[in-house]
Design goal:
- This protein has about 375 residues and is an alpha/beta fold.
- It has one domain: TIM Barrel, CATH 3.20.20.140.
- It is built from 14 helices and 13 strands.
- The chain has a nine-stranded parallel sheet with strand order 10-9-8-7-6-5-2-1-11.
Length: about 375
């Protein structure tokens, strides 16, 4: 049925890319990882859709928890989600997994859209959701009856933001794609090359009707500015991961904006190490650790060998990210040769755990 099990980085068709290549860390890099093993960690952006017999032990050994981020997609007008599977998984392991709900803009013109969305979110918040996700369908995919792409700052969505403010529930927002989506697919070494090659429907360069990167990012910025009382976690480093300076500009401008790293370590690795380290140092209270790792196959559909391979790949993938953040040796992150940032334990504690705990009000 299958020969290889892939770690899904950005589940639900199309979210981000699987980490491609990693090399064996040197002795010093391993030591750095061991030194930070005791630090509590929350993967604030994960997609472990199906339970795994190995996950509880792995997470406990690595002092880790994760947020299961729901994603919605539309196929032939049929809306599908992962919420039900996540709910079962989280209820079975409430000490390891937290929940994140989501909604989509399909039907925004309907007079009952707002109330139906609020009712859905209210029910899922009552079931344990601590955050709500909006996805890149806003701006890139979903249209209203007039044929216009629905941007995230659309005033028809404002009652939903007001509801979430009243509830004290933050939003994680994957708005737009990396800038490379609007550029030619001509560099196989680019960390996004494989994703757009395999998911051409998001390669905006070849789809002129999709609004420009600048248009979507501008709408995102406008939305953040119009909702200063809504805490917003911009997923994937705010879709500006190839230029940490741009991320810094927004963090300086919007005090309610935070960012997380999921599936964008390859972009960080392509930039100057000293510059990226300085970014983490300056914004250490606003950055959270995310991976976008997950799975999409029920365990009972896998062989023991496949399950073991998946586990080893997951462990290796987490290790590379942690070595990049804490070590100082050379390593390869998603095909990019780079040097570890060598962040001190105080900053790592914030990025791995404290910032997410505060943002999600876990304590």
């Amino acid at each position: 049925m299958k020969n290889t099990i892939y770690l899904i980085i950005a589940i639900i068709s199309l979210m981000a890319c699987k980490p491609k290549s990693e090399q064996q860390p040197s002795h010093d890099s391993q030591a750095a990882s061991t030194d930070t093993a005791a630090i509590k960690k929350i993967d604030v952006h994960a997609h472990f859709k199906y339970s795994r017999s190995y996950l509880p032990t792995l997470f406990k050994e690595r002092n880790m928890q994760s947020v299961l981020v729901d994603v919605i997609k539309v196929d032939s007008l049929v809306i599908s989600r992962s919420w039900d599977e996540y709910l079962i998984h989280a209820q079975a392991n409430p000490d390891l997994f937290f929940l994140c709900s989501s909604f989509i803009g399909v039907g925004v013109d309907s007079p009952d859209f707002t109330q139906n969305t609020i009712d859905q979110l209210s029910k899922e918040i009552d079931s344990g959701a601590r955050m709500v996700k909006v996805w890149k369908n806003f701006g890139m995919v979903t249209k209203d009856k007039s044929g216009n792409f629905i941007q995230i700052d659309d005033p028809r969505l404002q009652p939903i933001w007001d509801f979430l403010k009243d509830k004290g529930i933050p939003v994680i927002a994957h708005i737009a794609e990396p800038e490379q989506a609007w550029r030619p697919l001509d560099d196989p070494n680019n960390p996004h090359y494989g994703y757009y090659k395999n998911n051409p429907q998001y390669h905006a360069f070849k789809i002129p009707e999709i609004p420009s990167y600048e248009t979507i990012i501008s709408a995102r910025d406008s939305w953040i500015e119009k909702n200063p009382d809504l805490n917003i976690l911009c997923a994937h480093l705010g879709s500006m991961s190839n230029h940490v300076e741009r991320v810094a500009e927004r963090l300086d401008k919007f005090p309610n904006m935070y960012v997380e790293t999921a599936a964008r370590f390859g972009d960080l690795a392509r930039q100057d190490t000293k510059k990226v380290k300085a970014f983490f140092e300056k914004y250490q209270d606003r950055i959270m650790f995310g991976s976008d790792y997950g799975n999409s196959t029920p365990q009972d559909a896998m062989t023991e060998d496949e399950l073991q391979t998946e586990q080893l790949n997951l462990e290796k993938s987490y290790d590379v990210l942690w070595q990049y953040l804490s070590g100082t040796d050379s390593l390869v992150v998603r095909g990019q040769k780079t040097l570890g940032l060598g962040l001190p334990s105080g900053i790592l504690s914030k990025v791995y755990y404290e910032n997410a705990t505060n943002f999600l009000k876990l304590e």
